[in-house]
Amino acid sequence: MVSRRRVLAAGMATACTGVTGAALVPLATTPAGAEPSAADPAGNAAAPAVTPFTQPMPRPTVLSPVSSAGGIDVYVMTMKPATAEILPGIQSQVLTFNGNFPGPLIRARRGRPVVIQQRNRLDVPASVHLHGGEVDPQHDGQPMETIAPGADRTYYYPNTQPHASLWYHDHAHHIESENVYRGLSGQYLLTDEVEEALPLPTGQYDLPIAIRDANVDATGLHYTMGDRQRSTMLANGKAYPYVEVAARKYRIRLLNCSNQRFMELRLEDGSEMIQIGSDGGLLPRPHRTDAIPLSAAERADVVIDFSRYAVGSSVVLKNTGGFGSPELVGQVLRFDIVRTAKDSSRVPDVLRELPPLPQPTAERTVTLRMDEDGRPHPQAYIDEKLYDPARVDQQIRFGASEVWTVQNLNQIAWHNFHMHLVQFRVLERDGQAPGPAEAGLKDTVNLRPNETIKVQATFDTHRGSYVYHCHMLDHSAMGMMATMKIG
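Above: the chain's sequence. Below: its structure in token form.
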């Protein structure tokens, strides 16, 4: 791990200080679209048998500002190595914000800026991206604008956009995949008067849960690019935890922070969940469903009413999507109903009104493809090109509202698509209208093999260069990223 990461970090430093016009080609070991082999390619120790639902799931640590003078909340975060007990009794080496795995939760409010001083005390570069945030390019966490080991960088988030369940994570190109996998991510919940006026569950009944997979064995956490052995499911950093809840409604803020896993989350008894939000905040109308599909980086806010269960009973949150053994990846956590509680919350029939889409001013087509022929060092492409930070791939007029057609050209590999800066609207999936779960604002969308989607985005907040990419981070680290310049 250390030698590989030092090589990539040195390559990044070279690219940042003098190399232009050359595509960056990362190392990789296993094609992300390949099936797992019988033996662990990294030669890890055998994973110990894990008894599920023996660890309590921690709530994220809410970070307090060091100053709130002048209506600006100022935070300090230190990126540093630490250990985490992902499996009971086994310490894993992880990378953290402030020693937390995953990182601390920031609660922000529209119209109240946030300033974060990020201090890098790792031995590799890092670049912190507020995923889904509308920020100036110099504060976006660009892949090549990294914080060197031992250095600091200040990020300014104006919080002028509407409410949204955002998150932050490392974006240092070539090593973002491993940095995020090892722990460099956290949730950032932005609220506003629209959201606060609704009678939704709040306070202790508003529960953020970051879900991901990992390759963990008797010696701890292991990383390999494109690894299909990530078969231990984590919730807020713990493997198969339990969560004690009251017999009442909860708002659950789901984040899929996996590197590349697609999930479909269900309650084991098939009970209804009410999806009320997605990446860019509340849906226009609640969506009653028994399944919540989430690709890597997607978010969904759901309301679960635990009053239908008796005190003393339990219900498991299951995963029925993606690859791997159902015995391992098919269960995520268990809700234990331990007490009664008063409940005046409810889910209104109307959650928000979105403005009508403007008339499109341009249309573009983007293709996603990666090598899936079994070669030892696969690469991944947007429009058949590897990411080159010196190249501008799309020139966009400031104020334009554009329709982008995005195609997954692969026959086996899944992808998804994330645009920095903007929240967009999904118009079509393979020529059909999107379902109710995609009726709101989105910044990341899933694409199955051979699938085509159309989205519309309006570029009227900030000028400058931003990236768009597959947010299966193993794929973006392999080159599936490009640059748009708005001006």
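The CA atoms of residues 177 and 473 lie 5 Å apart.
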